[in-house]
C-alpha cells in the first residue's frame, strides 16, 4: 500500500503567511502540520509516499527531503497548478500503479493517526473508504448523504444547500478502481476535477464505497482560527521539559517546554506552552496555548493563545492574544506622538484597532 500526500495549493485563507511559506509547513507546537501527517502514515506501516507539490515545491523538498527521517521513501510529483484532488490522483497514476493507496491532505490534522483506518481498509478492502465528521457549516466542505442504513448514496462539493452535516475529512483510501473514476469525470464549475465527483461515479457504478465517522479530533488547518485551535489541542498533550536556561527571577508553571538553547529571564511562562531553541523571553509573560518558534525575542510583552514563527521579535507592546505571527516579523510600539497607526501589511491582511 502506498500514500499520496497533497502538498500543493495556494493557502489563500492563511495569507499573508502563505505568500512566503507553504501552508503545510506552518508549525503547530513548533512542528509543521505536514510532519504530523507523515508520521501518521509511517505509524500505519506505509513507507512509499508520493507527494504532490506545486509552487512551494522547493520549500517542501527542503523540509521533507527524501523522507528517511520519517522512515519513508518520498517521491515528488509536480502539479502545474491546483486543479482538484481527483487531478492529483490522475497525475500520480504512474507512481501509484496498481497499488491500493491512502490519499492524505497535507494541511489536515487528525488526533490519533490513521493506523486503525488503514488496518480496517486492508482487512475489508472496499473499493473506496472515506472519513466523515459532523461540522457546523458543511457548505465549505465536500458533503456526504447517507441512507437509513448508513450507506453513502451521494456526495457534493461545497453545496449551497447541504443534504447533511457530514463533511469529508482529508483522508481517503482507494483501490486502483479510482483511476477509472478520475478519468471518467469532467471539471466542475470551479474548473477542478473533484474527488467527490469521482466517488459519486463509483457509487453510481455500484462500487463498494464505505464511510467511517471520525470520533476523535480533526481539523483542516486552512485558516488562522483553525491553526490556533489545533495548536491548542496539541499543546494540551505536551509533557513538561526544561532543557534551556530559566533564571531564578523567572517562573514556569505547568506543562512548559523550554527547548535547549532557549533562555527565560525575569519572566513567567504558564503552560501548556513551548519555547523554541535560541529564543529569548525577557521581562515578559507567555500564557497558555502559545508556541514560540526558534530564534525569537519576546521582551517586555504579554503573549497568549498564539503562534509565533521563527526569527521574529515582539518588544514592549503590552498584550497580544489569538494571533499568528510569521517569520522575521518585528512587532514594536507605535510612537506616542503624534497619535497615529503605522502599518506594513501583506495582501489579504486583517487588522483590528482600538482607538
TrEMBL record:
It comes from Streptomyces djakartensis. This is Glucose-1-phosphate thymidylyltransferase. NCBIfam families: rmlA_long (TIGR01208). Pfam families: NTP_transferase. Residues 2-235 form the Nucleotidyl transferase domain. InterPro entries: G1P_thy_trans_l, NTP_transferase_dom, Nucleotide-diphossugar_trans. It comes from the Bacteria.
